[in-house]
């Protein structure tokens, strides 16, 4: 089933969800740079892909938002008592997923580094841009906030599965 239904998420939604979850998990390994100044296997093998994966995630979140908008009337029903909280939580997750790569791009442009993803130059190196650097300075605090939201999201999914014993988690599996 490609499209979402009132009972389950479709294959496109599931693919976006789990692929982005894996890539965001990879991105969060960047926190490992704070350990031993990145001088370990994570810092040396996975972190160099941080900008490329972030750029890919920006494309994916835009495509996912378009997909969500086309499916909004077909998505699984929410418990009316918590529907607003669920929408707010998902809205914050989507905002974080969108703001992370945008502020990351501002870090690169603000520092005059340019932007290269997967070996393709998107923006050439140039002069530092103060306003872009200022916006880019939000990248790290947003990473922490998004991490908290992700932990909350996982926690709620597990609570639904193991405590409430409903089918919320199964909809995305």
Automatic annotation (TrEMBL):
InterPro entries: Cyt_b561_bac/Ni-Hgenase, Cytochrome_b561_oxidase, Di-haem_cyt_TM. The keyword Electron transport applies. Keywords: Cell membrane, Electron transport, Heme, Iron, Membrane, Metal-binding, Transmembrane, Transmembrane helix, Transport. The chain crosses the membrane at residues 12-29, 49-70, 91-113, 142-163. Its main location: membrane. It holds the Pfam family Ni_hydr_CYTB. The keyword RNA-binding does not apply. It is a multi-pass membrane protein. It is found in: Cell membrane. Its cofactor is heme b. Residues 8-173 form the Cytochrome b561 bacterial/Ni-hydrogenase domain. PANTHER family: CYTOCHROME B561 (PTHR30529), CYTOCHROME B561 HOMOLOG 2 (PTHR30529:SF1). Belongs to the cytochrome b561 family. This is Cytochrome b. It comes from Oceanisphaera sediminis.
């Amino acid at each position: 089933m490609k499209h979402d239904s009132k009972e389950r998420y479709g294959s496109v939604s599931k693919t976006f969800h789990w692929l982005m979850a894996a890539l965001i998990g990879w991105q969060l390994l960047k926190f490992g740079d704070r350990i031993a100044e990145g001088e370990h296997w994570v810092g040396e093998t996975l972190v160099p892909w941080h900008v490329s994966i972030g750029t890919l995630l920006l494309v994916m979140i835009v495509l996912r938002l378009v997909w969500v908008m086309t499916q909004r009337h077909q998505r699984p029903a929410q418990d009316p008592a918590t529907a607003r909280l669920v929408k707010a939580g998902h809205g914050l997750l989507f905002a974080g997923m969108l703001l992370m790569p945008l502020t990351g791009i501002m870090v690169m442009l603000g520092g005059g580094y340019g932007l290269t993803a997967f070996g393709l130059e998107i923006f050439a190196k140039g002069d530092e841009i103060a306003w872009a650097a200022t916006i880019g300075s939000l990248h790290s605090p947003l990473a922490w906030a998004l991490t908290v939201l992700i932990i909350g999201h996982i926690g709620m999914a597990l609570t639904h599965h193991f405590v409430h014993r409903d089918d919320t988690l199964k909809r995305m599996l």
